[in-house]
Amino acid sequence: xxxxxxxxxxxLASALLxxxxxxxxARELPDFTQLVQNExxxxxxxxxxxxxRQAVPDxxxxxxxxxxxxxxxxxxxxxxxxxxARSLGSxxxxxxxxxxxxxxxxxxxxxxxxVTLTDKREFRARLVGSDARTDVALLKIDAGNLxxxxxxxxANLKVGEWVVAIGSPFGFxxxxxxxxxxxxxxxxxxxxxxxxxxxxxxxxxxxxxxPLFNLNGEVVGINSQIFSKSGGFMGISFAIxxxxxxxxxxxxxxxxxxSRGRIGVVVQEVGxxxxxxxxxxxxxxxxxxxxxxxxxxDRAGLRIGDIVLRIDGQNVDSSPDLQRLISGIxxxxxxxxxxxxxxxxxxxxxxxxxxxxxxxxxxxREFRPPSAAADGQQQMAPxxxxxxxxxxxxxxxxxxxxxLLVERAGGAAARAGIVPGDVxxxxxxxxxxxxxxxxxxxxxxxxxxxxxxxLVRRGAVLFVPLKVGEGA
Length: 472
Known about the structure:
Elements: H1 2-28, H2 33-39, E1 43-57, H3 69-75, E2 78-93, E3 99-102, H4 104-107, E4 112-116, E5 122-131, E6 136-140, E7 162-167, E8 175-188, E9 191-199, E10 211-214, E11 219-226, E12 237-241, H5 242-255, E13 261-262, E14 265-269, H6 272-277, E15 286-291, H7 296-300, E16 307-311, E17 314-315, H8 319-327, E18 334-341, E19 344-351, E20 353-354, E21 378-380, E22 385-389, H9 392-398, E23 404-409, H10 411-416, E24 423-427, E25 430-431, H11 435-444, E26 450-457, E27 460-467
Antiparallel strand pairs: 1-2, 1-4, 2-3, 3-6, 4-5, 5-6, 7-8, 7-10, 8-9, 9-12, 10-11, 11-12, 13-20, 14-15, 15-16, 16-17, 16-18, 18-19, 21-22, 22-23, 23-24, 24-25, 24-26, 26-27
């Protein structure tokens, strides 16, 4: 009997514990119901139509199943055909009088934009303006007394914080998904103007342009992109910080376009070895590899080899930070840059110009070194380099006073990333004047030290860290 009582008491305790644990867990998990009820009314569905013109073989409409269709499709003379393409997205209302925020790619090239509210009312929308660089667009509908999304600040968002997306994935209106902030300030390839918020919130086609909420019911981002190999959600999604989006929206509302600053520099990332070669205590900042002649940076005295550490007191932790921070400066405004030069910090004041779209005709030509005979080649066995001095014509083409064309790169040079065809034009930000200058720098360097070698590669300037004394 005692044994049976022990078993019964154990089972009873387990049953009680099983009833208590879910309640405790439920109390710890967030409840999104009130957030969705209060804020979901400001989320809208956006549908667009676009006229697409496509050349098709004449007179073949309706004959797609005919055995000879493929033959005539390939060889019959084509004629233009028009059809209406449709797309879906999301957005949210930012003013009671009908301004709506969404992604630029949702409404790109649209002939007609329709905004549908949660109460099923539909409005024809006018595109106030869009900005492809940040993927933000501002719409206007003729309506009043609308529910408005409450705006928060992405600056206060913390990694690990709960967030909620509301939108229209695959056209399913007012769908809710939740997750956490996975990272902040995420830089994506070819997306240098937006420090994206990365989340694991389920976002799919149709969610684009919809709001990302924090648990206070405030919009902290605009859902914009997903990382996917399947076309659907794979656990990684990206949102535009609301602070960035609203700055763009205000400019679009005032002038229909976005004005950005520029200072006329090209920069690259500062790795640990490059930081060591410049005497920088840690790998941070943006290393200037090119300065536009006559541009704002040139007029202010910035040089190739300077490392920008801060802009108006804001840290530049990586090279994309510089373009993002500079682009947020209004043209004509003076800004203070803290730079690392000659192993010390100094301040340089620059007046920003306005960023314009590049002129394709102004793009520089790629340097194509001619094949050469073996004579004239100079060896640097300690680092595995074989180089040749540029001719006068080649120097004019690259617009450099002196340069060494790399014909062979092995050992330490290859490990640094130097390849045949590169042109060595500088050391540590100082122009190269002779082969002897490079040879003496390598010979005089301590074993294990790093030299910042400035190269021209396919028309672009970059620095690579050459470790000396590792053997060829």
